[in-house]
Design brief:
- This protein is α/β, with parallel strands linked by helices.
- It has helices at about 15-25, 30-40, 45-55, 60-70, 90-100, 115-125, 165-180, 180-190, 200-215; strands at about 1-5, 30, 80-85, 110-115, 125-130, 135-140, 160, 195.
- A five-stranded parallel beta sheet has the order 2-3-1-4-8, with helices on both faces. A three-stranded antiparallel beta sheet has the order 6-5-7.
- Strand 5 and strand 6 (about 135-140) form a beta hairpin.
- The longest helix has 15 residues, at about 165-180.
- The two termini are about 15 Å apart.
- The relative contact order is 0.17.
């Protein structure tokens, strides 16, 4: 299957992508991983992306599209893939359609993880990270530490990252609404959109998505 996963920040795309890719035996292709891999390997596209990022500029669609194309042409993606973070706008969605059509392929579904905006803010703004080890993550509501502000694992100080503040989250949501949300209508017009309520336990959301794909 060839699937695109969309949804606002905090919808759980990364978590769901990993579970869905495993259940479907297809690679999970995320934009973040593509950038990190290309930059660390020193590819031409990676060098181009790094130059833009170091200058504080947005990486052009052409570079992102090139990375995605290279990854989708790898042998492990021959029978399908799950795209997470790409396409990010309508021009990238159009480019993806052109790429797939040239290879005689098409998307099977676009899964839209639906979450209310206030819930997104609550999820992200409530995160607290350990200063000693960033893999120790807590949440003031959903996974609170035993002692306020103290990591259960190592006793380190818990803090809120700057990009997790409510103001920053709402700004990220505005960017999502402006740039990425239009692809929902784009794919709906193609009959590919499947909306998945993303509230509840991770396993429940995964089951909803798998059930929808079976249909």
């Amino acid at each position: 299957m060839r699937i695109v996963l969309v949804g606002p920040p905090g919808a759980g795309k990364g978590t769901q992508a990993a579970f869905l890719a495993k259940n479907l035996s297809i690679p999970h292709i995320s934009t973040g991983d593509l950038f990190r891999a290309n930059i660390s390997q020193g590819t031409d596209l990676g060098k181009q992306a790094k130059a833009y990022m170091d200058a504080g500029d947005l990486v052009p669609d052409s570079v992102t599209i090139g990375m995605a194309k290279d990854r989708m042409e790898q042998p492990d993606a021959a029978n399908g893939f799950l795209l997470d973070g790409f396409p990010r706008n309508v021009s990238q969605a159009e480019a993806l359609d052109v790429m797939l059509k040239a290879e005689g392929m098409k998307l099977d579904a676009v899964l839209d993880l639906e979450v209310e905006e206030d819930e997104v803010v609550k999820r992200i703004a409530g995160r607290r990270i350990c200063r000693n080890d960033s893999s120790h993550v807590f949440h003031v509501t959903y996974a609170p530490p035993k002692a306020d502000g103290v990591c259960d694992t190592c006793g380190g100080e818990l803090y809120q990252r700057g990009d997790d503040s409510e103001a920053t989250v709402r700004n990220r949501l505005e960017v999502y609404h402006t740039q990425t949300e239009p692809i929902i209508d784009y794919y709906k017009a193609q009959g590919l959109l499947v909306t998945i309520p993303a509230l509840g336990e991770v396993a429940d959301v995964t089951k909803r998505a798998m059930d929808a794909l079976k249909k």
